[in-house]
Amino acid sequence: MHLQAVDVVDNISPEEFKRKYYDTKKPLIIKDLAKQWPAYTKWNWDYFKELVGNQKVALYNNIKSDAYTPINTADDYKTFGEYIDMIKAGPAGWRIFLFNIFDHAPQLIKDFTWPDDLMKGYVKKYPMLFTGGQTSITHMHFDIDVSHILHTQFAGRKRVLLFPNEEQHKLYRKPFEVLSMVDFSNYYDADKSKVDYNKFPALKKANGYEVILEHGDTLFMPAGYWHHMEYLDSGFAMSLRAMQSSIGGKLTGVWNLFGMRSIDTVMKKTFPHPWYNWKQKKIARKAVEELSK
Fold first, then answer.
1. Considering the entire predicted model, what is its pTM?
2. Residues 6 or more apart from 63 whose CB is under 8 A from it?
3. pLDDT at 191 over 70
């Protein structure tokens, strides 16, 4: 893999953001965007536990889904308070995915401001909280609705690996899915790395970015970007999503949500082995094409 650092700014004008990052689909870290929000100092584990501690939430472990598993299937359930106690006690490879805490504590909406000067098209009904215990992992994927994302880290540190969408076949994308075949767990640690270049040779040619997010950092992830995240500390972040401005971008998101995912779910249930074998052949063929370029 060829990795470079993500550009970092304290602040940026809307004009420069659009010209250098939004239009070119290049990621960016904005250090001070969230520091003006009450959430920057107000949001913490105890505050969330007080507000929504009794709310049951779906938990996800670090096991990478296999070829037959429908995406987004929860591995366990706890109350939010029980979950917070667990991850505060020490390393715990469990995370909460797409929890709309704002449905249960709408007063939190007042604690941040939508950056309308940077982008339009926010899905303001669905700001999302992402929470993980130390050592938890979000495996390599791209967001199915292919929205632009402003992802702000509020507690703990998180290592993020990013790739543009056009690198998908070097990442061994599963057909009709948003997931990679490759396990990137601990990719940065030579003693623990599971990245197998012998099995996935095209990955050597993949060009991407690497960054560690800290408290208050806001990461701009352009639409369709692949991302793999590892929690270096127990922490949480909020994502603000903005639909693509183009009709083509919006239609791609609709197709992924209601067409691609539905087809994959039906085929996994109806013809799991032939479907898996077809995917394997297509993945291999695409990888060979990348290596031959």
1. 0.91
2. 75
3. no
